[in-house]
Amino acid sequence: MASIKFTTKDIFEQDFKIGFRGYEPDEVNDFLDDIMKDYDAYEAIIKELKGEIARLKAQLANAPKATTLPVEDSETLRTERTTSATNFDILRRLNRLEKEVFGKQIAQED
């Protein structure tokens, strides 16, 4: 994972050299102020998410193992139902196609 190179304080204290045709200092400062606000927001989000991860890991460690099995079983059932419904639809379509194709041939042979 990449490490964070700058803090909000580093960005705030950064000075730029002003050349003959340099950037407008006020514009640069306004832009850096916006970057600092975003950076603070990102840090808050990261802190919140790390706390949530720790809480969920603790909850998972304290959860009984039996509660996780029915969830997996229900997922398996849901997948099997979807597969069987799909197979049924395919068989029904094949049946219609066979009646259409072979039904005409059988009627002609009689």
Automatic annotation (TrEMBL):
InterPro entries tied to this protein: Cell_cycle_GpsB, DivIVA_domain, DivIVA_fam
Primary location group: cytoplasm
Record's signal peptide: none
Keywords tagged on the record: Cell cycle, Cell division, Cell shape, Coiled coil, Cytoplasm
Protein family per UniProt: Belongs to the GpsB family.
HAMAP family reported in the protein's UniProt record: GpsB
Stated name of the protein: Cell cycle protein GpsB
Lineage: Bacteria, Bacillati, Bacillota, Bacilli, Lactobacillales
